[in-house]
């Protein structure tokens, strides 16, 4: 089974090897028929402390690193370039 990958914005990088990522999803409300935005915060493992506040990053499911940290930062630059619609840097 493939691991889920989410895209979000780093809102905190103050702790060592941990980032907090805000992931926003949009859906149409079943009764009001309006687009609704919902967001959720995830703690992700950042081994080398490379992510900074305000960056858009990809996180994927992983083994539990702590009580609340079960996601890790995707370091693959090709995945980030592909999502941005650019050719990967060779």
TrEMBL record:
Q: Which GO terms describe its cellular component?
A: cytosolic small ribosomal subunit
Q: Which domain of life is it from?
A: Bacteria
* InterPro entries registered for this protein in UniProt: NA-bd_OB-fold, Ribosomal_uS17, Ribosomal_uS17_bact/chlr
SUPFAM superfamilies referenced in this protein's UniProt entry, alphabetically: Nucleic acid-binding proteins
Q: Which GO terms describe its biological process?
A: translation
Q: Which GO terms describe its molecular function?
A: rRNA binding; structural constituent of ribosome
Recorded hits in Gene3D superfamilies, A to Z, give: Nucleic acid-binding proteins (2.40.50.140)
What keywords is this UniProt entry annotated with? Answer: Ribonucleoprotein, Ribosomal protein, RNA-binding, rRNA-binding
Which PANTHER family did the record assign?
A: 40S RIBOSOMAL PROTEIN S11 FAMILY MEMBER, SMALL RIBOSOMAL SUBUNIT PROTEIN US17M
Family membership, please give it.
Answer: Belongs to the universal ribosomal protein uS17 family.
Q: What does this protein do?
A: One of the primary rRNA binding proteins, it binds specifically to the 5'-end of 16S ribosomal RNA.
* NCBIfam families recorded: PRK05610.1, uS17_bact
> What subunit structure does UniProt give?
Part of the 30S ribosomal subunit.
The protein here is known as Small ribosomal subunit protein uS17
The organism named in the record is Methylobacterium brachythecii
Gene name, per UniProt, is rpsQ
């Amino acid at each position: 089974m493939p691991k889920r990958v989410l895209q979000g914005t780093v809102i905190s990088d103050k702790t060592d090897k941990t980032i907090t990522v805000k992931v926003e999803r949009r859906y149409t409300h079943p009764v009001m028929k309006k687009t609704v935005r919902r967001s959720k915060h995830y703690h992700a493992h950042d081994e080398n402390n490379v992510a900074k506040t305000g960056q858009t990053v990809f996180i994927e499911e992983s083994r539990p690193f702590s009580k609340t940290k079960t996601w890790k930062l995707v370091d693959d630059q090709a995945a980030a370039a592909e999502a941005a619609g650019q050719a990967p840097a060779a």
